[in-house]
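Sync notes, pocket subgroup
Present: LS, DG
LS reminded everyone that the earlier model was apo-only. Rerun requested with nicotinamide-adenine-dinucleotide included. Inputs:
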Amino acid sequence: MAKEKILVIGASGQIGVELTQALREIYGNSNVVASDLREENELLRGTGPYVSLDVMNKEMLHVQVIRQNITQIYLLAAILSATGEKNPGLAWHLNMQGLLNVLDIAREEKLQKVYWPSSIAVFGPTSPKLNCPQQTIIEPITVYGISKYAGEFWCNYFHRRFAVDVRSIRYPGLISYKSSPGGGTTDYAVEIFYEALESKKYKCFLKADTYLPMMYMPDAIRATIELMEAPADKLTIRTSYNVSAISFSPSEISNEIKKHIPDFEVQYSPDYRQTIAESWPQSIDDSIARTDWGWKPEFDLEKMTRDMLRNLDGIS
Ligand code: NAD
Ligand code: AKB
């Protein structure tokens, strides 16, 4: 087997830190190059190569790919849903041009594989709310969702037209304790753990009964690696795969946390993110991912809550 050399772009972010750690376990520290606009995350420092890189600078990116003999790219740099609504032009520009730069270089350099995540944010108010299927009405209302949907079709195009082996997952909201989330609508489900431990109070920016699809980071990392390791001929979706794990509301997660911290209190003060959350499905049908590459989540709400609290504060 040819030796893999992987470049992770956006490695200092919520997913990037844990994905880089997982890839280094598999491929060896020196074969996974972390890169970001931001400084190197402290959890990655000293564990492998790091380069400061702007995905918008195509020439510099190309130079790094050649210089480091890169064979695979994981592109994680993006502006997420809530931050995107504050600067739609910037979100569109980064989310689209960053992807096109990577796809072009992958084609020119004949890279082995590319990974690029999409999101449940592709769905909009006209998509089915429950068990939202892979193929359905898709009319996103955020610039982030529009950029992800367009990105999915660029991936499909580069695969069909230029045989670029680009693979993608529509992640739900991700919950993790190693690196903070970066401006999404689902970020409340991470903040709530920190506030429960720090002050036993949390002011939630979504209504109590807002159900959203979510996933614990270990499941998301495993899904990513399983998709990337799947034989190419098993993959029937070249836009982006629906995957699913848990659906819960702010009220349900706070009740779960209260089982460990009984005097925890939550107030509800919905803001502009409520409209975004209400435009997304409450649950996702991931049967095609299960059939094509054997996807199956491990963490439910109870198991995830216990693990989050144990890792953040040693509560069991
Ligand atoms: P994040 O905001 O935590 O991390 C993104 C990283 O990209 C940051 O470290 C940032 O500094 C870096 N970055 C920004 N602009 C850059 C540039 N021009 N060049 C290089 N690096 C740049 O985001 P995340 O939550 O880790 O998300 C990663 C990917 O997964 C994104 O595409 C996001 O849309 C997708 N996704 C995330 C979630 C989630 O819940 N976290 C859910 C669905 C999809
Ligand atoms: C966000 O809330 O923007 C992200 C996502 C679901 O894509 N977590």
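DG: Residues 74 and 176 are 19 Å apart (CA to CA).
LS: The chain is about 40% helix and 15% strand.
Action: DG to write up.
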